[in-house]
Write a structure and sequence with these properties.
Length: 278
């Protein structure tokens, strides 16, 4: 068996064209802001990609880059600027932040109505009770990629590897809600015998940041696997899923080129939807 590729790049390109057509008809263009602190190469590459996406779709972009020496007060000042900016529809603070800066305080300081990443506690709380709010971009990307390939989650056993704030926890909520209707298991560093969980899963979402951790012997034949983790190595960018999984799975999203481009597309979707709601 050779797994079908869930092509995030091609799917994201389709979504961006759909958004471009919507934006072209808007009287006032949306504006996406980013706050980037420090010199992490991955973060700089990712933020740069977001602004290229904006240009392709017709969204105005506002970029604030702060040095690694920036204080928590400096970041809060940048947040205040974007909270008060009439040109900024929504924005993100690129994570991770340098040591010494309280990420929770930073996220809590974002105007919830401009929370393009869907990570403000108020918006996460709305997700819990099923109220409409911006959805965290990577979980939304995963659901959208499955939907675009007509993969139903209803009644499925889904294992999410990783319990982080940006993927695991909000994704578990989304997949267990009415409409998704999956049965969810979230594994983590204290899980005993992870393979016993993954081997029974219909869908596995790997988001642990451990290169090639998930192997073919850890999944059942025909499972669907989405690779979210990404690690920079001397050999290049590596995902959490080993290449041998493609010989057992029925479908797989690659790294790079899978969930990553979709995450960026969902950020644009969040910003356009925010603008339309005003």
């Amino acid at each position: 068996m050779s797994a079908k590729i869930l092509d995030g790049r091609a799917t994201a390109a389709t979504i961006k064209e759909e958004l471009r057509q919507v934006v072209s008809k808007m009287d006032r263009k949306p504006g996406l802001g980013t706050i980037l602190v420090g010199d992490d190469p991955g973060s700089h590459s990712y933020v740069g990609g977001k602004h290229k996406d904006c240009a392709q779709v017709g969204i105005n972009s506002i970029r604030i880059d702060l040095p690694n020496s920036a204080s928590e007060k400096d970041v809060l000042a940048a947040i205040s600027d974007l909270n008060n900016s009439s040109e900024c529809t929504g924005y993100i603070v690129q994570l991770p932040l340098p040591k010494g800066i309280n990420s929770n305080l930073i996220l809590e300081s974002i105007d919830p109505d401009k929370d393009a990443d869907g990570l403000h506690p108020l918006n996460l709380g709305k997700l819990v009770i099923g109220e409409k709010a911006p959805i965290a971009c990577t979980p939304r990307a995963i659901l959208e990629l499955l939907n675009r390939y007509s993969i139903s989650t209803s009644g499925s056993e889904i294992v999410i590897m990783g319990r982080g704030l940006t993927v695991g926890r909000p994704l578990g909520l989304l997949l267990s809600m009415r409409g998704s209707d999956a049965t969810i298991t979230i594994t983590h560093t204290k899980t005993i015998d992870v393979i016993s969980h993954t081997k029974r899963a219909d869908i596995i979402i790997a988001a642990i940041g451990s290169p090639h951790f998930l192997r073919a012997n850890a999944i059942k034949p025909g499972a669907i696997v989405l690779d979210v983790g990404i690690t920079r190595t001397d050999a290049g960018l590596l995902g959490d899923v080993h290449p041998d999984v493609s010989e057992v799975a029925s479908a797989i999203s690659p790294t790079p080129g899978g969930v990553g481009p979709m995450t960026r597309a969902m950020l644009l979707s969040n910003v356009v939807e925010m603008a339309l709601a005003k």
